[in-house]
Amino acid sequence: MSGSSSTALRAPDSPLIVLLVAGAFFMENLDGTIIATALPQMAHSFGVHPVDLSIGITSYLLTLAVFIPISGWTADRFGVRRVFTAALAVFTAASVVCGMTDGLVSFTAARIVQGIGGAMMVPVGRLAVLRATPKDDLMRAISIITWPGLVAPVIGPPLGGLITTYSSWRWIFYLNLPLGLIGMVLAWRFIDGRDDDTERRPFDGLGFVLSGVCCTALMYAMELIGRSDAPWREALAFFAASVATGVAAFLHLRRCPHPVVDLSALRVRTFAVAMGGGSLFRISISTVPFLLPLMFQIGFGLDAFESGLLTLAVFAGNLSMKVVTTPVMRRFGFRSVLLVNGALAALSLAAMSLLTPTTPYGWVVALLFFSGLARSLQFTAINTLSFADVPKAQMSAASTFASTLGQMTMGMGVAVGAIALRVAAWLHGHPAQSVTPADFSLAFVLVSLVGFAALYDVFGLARHAGAEVSGHAKR
Fold this sequence. Notes:
By secondary structure, this protein is mainly α.
C-alpha cells in the first residue's frame, strides 16, 4: 500500500482512535464468553437443552478464526476506515438480531454473522493503530488495545450472570447497540479516509478455503478430545483433516504471489518468536477463565456469584500492571521481561494447584492478583514485540497473521484446559464425568508446563531485541 494510505489516522486523533479500537476489541472479546452463564435461561427461551447452546459459543469463535485471514485483503482493497466502520455496523446489527431470536437455528445464524463482523474489527482496527503510531509510542498503544483480550474473558461470565439474573439474557446483546452506534460515528469521523489509492490485489480463494478448513478442523478436533465422552475416531479424523489441509495451505501460501495470509513477516526474528512461544503462552493463560470457575464451583462448592467475585482478582491484577508496564519494559527490555516474567506467570499457574476448599480467601485473592499482574505484562510484551521490527509495508500481512493465530490460540486454550482436566481424571483412575479438586490441581500443573515451554523461543532473542520500541537501549 502506498504512503498516503499507510497513514490510517490523523496524528492528533491517534489517542482517541486507540481507545476506540480498544472498545471495539472489548465488545468482540466479551461476546465470546459473556453468554456462558446465560445458557440455562436462553435454553428455556428456545426450548432446548442448555448443552445444545454451546454451539452459540463455538460457532462465533470458529467464524472469527475462519474470516480473520481475509481481513488484511479487505482492508487493503477497500480502505481501513470503510472496513472498520462496516465491521462495527455488521457486528452491532447481528447483536440486535441475536437478542430478537426465538430459536436455536436463527440464533446460531446470527452469531455467525456477528463473528464475521468481529473478524473484520480485530485486525483492521489494530492495523489502523499500527500504521499511525510511531515506534517509540507503540508500547503505550499496544498496552491499551491489549487489555480487552485479558479483561473480557474474566468479567464476561459474571457480567452475563448479573444481566441474566436481574434482567433478561437478551440485554446481553442489546447493550451492543449504543456502543456500536457511537463507535461507527467516531470511526467515520476520526479515521483518515485518504485511501483512494487502495491496493487492488487479487483475492486468494484457494488459500482462504484451505486455511479456513484447517483452523475449523483443528479447533473442532481439540473440542472433541476435551469432552468427557470423546468420540476418538471422529476426533482423529478431524485432526488428520486439519494436518492435511494445513500442509496444503502452507505450501500454497508460500507459492502464491498474493496469499490470503502472507507468511513473509515470519522472517523477522522478533515476529517469529512472538508467534511461536507467544502462542504457547496465550494457550496457557486462556485456560484460566475456563478452569478457575469450574474449580471454584464444582471442586470447591462455591456458587456462581462467589466464583465470579474471586476471578475478578485476576482482572484487578491485569489493570494494575498497566500502570507500570512501560517503565518495566524500558528498564529491562523484551528478552529479560519475557524470560523472568514468563517464568513467574507459569509458576502462578502451577501455584493454583495448591488451592483447596479450605484455603483462606485472602491467599486465593493474592495468588490470582499476582497471576493477573504477570499475565498482563507478558501479554503486552508479546503483542508489542510482534510488531517491533516489522516494516510498515508488511504491517497488514503481519496484523492479519497475528490476529488469525491469536484467535486460534485463545480458542484452543479452552480445549487445552478441558483436555488437561480429562488427563488428570484418567491419571487418578476415575471417569472424566466426575472431577475432583485433585483433578483441577493436576490440570493446572499440566497447563503450567505449556507456559514453561513458551520460554524456549525467547532464549534465541538478542539482548536488545525490539529496543526501538521498548526504549531499553537508550539506558
